[in-house]
Amino acid sequence: MKTTSYGQPIALVNGGIPSQGDESGLDLAQVLGALRRRAILVIGITAAVMVAAGLKGSLDVPSYQAQFELLIQPNTAESDVISSLPEALTGRPPQAQGVTPDLLKILGSPKILLPVVKRFKMQYPNACEQFSDSGLSTVPLGESPNDSCYKSITSKLAVTVVGKDSNIIQVTYEGLKPQQVKSFLDLTAKAYLDYSLQSRQLDIRKGIEFVEGKLPDLQQQVQSLQGELQALRQGNDIIDPEVKGSQLSGQVGDFKQQQLETQVQLEQAAALSGDLQGQLAGRSPEVAASSALSENPRYQSLLNRMIELDGKIAEATTVYTEETPDLQVLREERNNLVSLLERESQQVQREVAGKIRELEVRDRSLTAKLGSLNSEVRQLAGVSRSFTDVQRELQIATEALNQLLAKRQAQEIDIAQREIPWELITPTTLPQPFDSSMTRNLALGAILGLLLSTGAALAMNRLADVIYTAEELKRLIKLPLLGIIPHNEASGGGAPIINLAPVLQPVGAGNVREFNGGKNNGKVRRQYYEADPFAESFRSLYANIRLLNTDVPIQSLVVSSAMPGEGKSTVSVYLAQAAAAMGQRVLLVDTDLRCPRVHEYVGLPNKGGLIDVLAGQMDLKGAIQRSLVEPNLFVLTAGAVPPDPTRLLSSQRMHHLMMQVNNNFDLVIYDAPPLLGFADAHLMATHTQGVILVSQLGRLKRSLGEQALEQLRVSNIPVLGMVIQSTEVH
């Protein structure tokens, strides 16, 4: 039979076997899944460890615990002075608020606790014998921070801070005798209060020394800065640079405005002069139309007289001849007016030129003045910067000097006081039985039990070598996922499935139900779709197979699995009936000749089948049976189990049979034996268009899956994809 090459089926060339990195890693989902599957083991180990820890805690000797609380005043005299000064003068960063780790270390150091242990031993001479090996000791215990008594007593003392950034510490002590617990805490509280007073007095003295050391330098610095400020004022003849700067800025603005106005007037005068020269060039004065001439009253008076005279001449020419004396007198008078107009226009030109020279002189004067003012402004900027720097430093130094003087007076008063700076806000409480051993043992037992049980569950999960999740299977078998088949009660018990119609019923009106709501007397009607997930999974599976290649549909395929019991026959039967229900003529062939079961699933007799056809004892048409529940589904059962199935499946008669049924049916499905241990599926797949690999979660072992993939890769058999069978109820 001729097979068609598909782009979707995979030949498993360098891609089917997972890398080492894929196997070695465990993600959170895998860990949680392993714990869920081994829940009984986890609970059992955890409970056993907790019971053992509880028994150990019940055998421990009971102890007593008491505590007291101190309010710590972290600010010392020296730190008060330093915190009030600017950081630039002290050169030290700001002090942290709250109880510092250094203070906690001091409170637990031998400097404070060794005298406490000595006084405690004087009250209870036998207190240290419980920590020695034999109860007797020839070495004075508690006399050194390195002996066992001191270490044992102080190891039961805990100094902690109550809350973040808090000034309250809590001191807790645990012992076997309540009287000794309270006495030791009382001695410790007194030692802490004495330390606070001594530390306070020492800090005050250091603060006074600090102030006395800083005062001369600050006084000299203030005097030096005052001298610099005075020199700046006298050298530049100014009192306040800001006032002087404001005055200069105002003057510069005024002069710039005047210069701008002068330049505008100069441009207007130059334009007027040019226009006047253009009007008078080659023209009579009486026809010139310059604005400078129109604004000159003398010129306008002469021009008006000429216009009047021209009118008289015009009237006279209508009455007299040119030789008439009256007309000649008028013309003579007109010539005189023309001469006067020419002289007047020349005078206007001289006036405009004079105005231009005057404006140019004024512009140069303003430019020089602005240059002088800008020079003063630049000089003042440098002086102002120096003045500001000196004034700022003087202000800082003066404030620091005043603060130091005030602190010195306050410290002189504090040095004479004996008030304890720390406060015992909660005295030593009555010792109470402390069942920390039982609680601690149970908590540690629970943690240890969870760790041990988790490790055991993961180890068993790794040793089982079984794939439980679809994600693990997809990482191992890098094939297209054609479908995930949910768990189905009817198919999971191993009983024969005869009537498949209730499961794979067609989607139609029977699957759409009406829901009558409780409102409006049942008038509210809603519809919803009811679908069986198990049936829909096979419809989706067949749809995905059809979509692998829309140009050349798949007509024959082999359904197999890596190992027995993964549900390949179930998938074959349901897939065949789903395809038949969707209008395809489907032939289901049982080629698992070693363990045939298709006839049990479909409820047909196995009197004659594939073996009889290959042996020539029955024709193909007579061996094919029609399904009782689906008219488009035809089944070719296996028949009697032969002694050598591989020989029959690899024969030419089998090849001819496969070509014949492929021409008569839309889809032929071969239910083949498992891949591992048998060559039947490989022989069948070479004459079909590909293999569908069925894998069941919780059953397939990783190593067997890898072997099956390696065999497919070596055989170069196209694989259409994989189908996952779930073992859980969805």
Principal-axes geometry comes out as flat
Output the radius of gyration.
57 Å
Count of helical stretches: 25
Proportion of residues in β-strands: 5-15%
Largest sheet: 8 strands, mixed
- CATH superfamily label of the largest domain: P-loop containing nucleotide triphosphate hydrolases
Given as residue ranges, the uncertain stretches (5+ residues, pLDDT < 50) are 1-25, 87-94, 133-142, 492-500, 506-520, 522-529
Could you say how many structural domains there are in total?
4
Strand order of the largest sheet: 6-15-14-9-13-10-12-11
**Helical content band:** 55-70%
Q: What is the typical, i.e. mean, pLDDT? A: 74
Q: Can you name the CATH architecture of the largest domain?
A: 3-Layer(aba) Sandwich
Count all strands and give the number.
15
Description:
The protein is built from 25 helices and 15 strands. It has 4 domains: about 55 residues, no CATH class; about 150 residues, Alpha-Beta Plaits, CATH 3.30.70; about 150 residues; about 250 residues, P-loop containing nucleotide triphosphate hydrolases (Rossmann fold, 3-Layer(aba) Sandwich). With about 725 residues, the chain is an alpha/beta fold. It is flat, with a radius of gyration of 57 Å. Strands 6-15-14-9-13-10-12-11 form an 8-stranded mixed sheet, with helices on both faces. Strands 1, 2, 3, 4 and 5 form a 5-stranded antiparallel sheet that branches. Strands 7-8 form a two-stranded antiparallel ribbon.
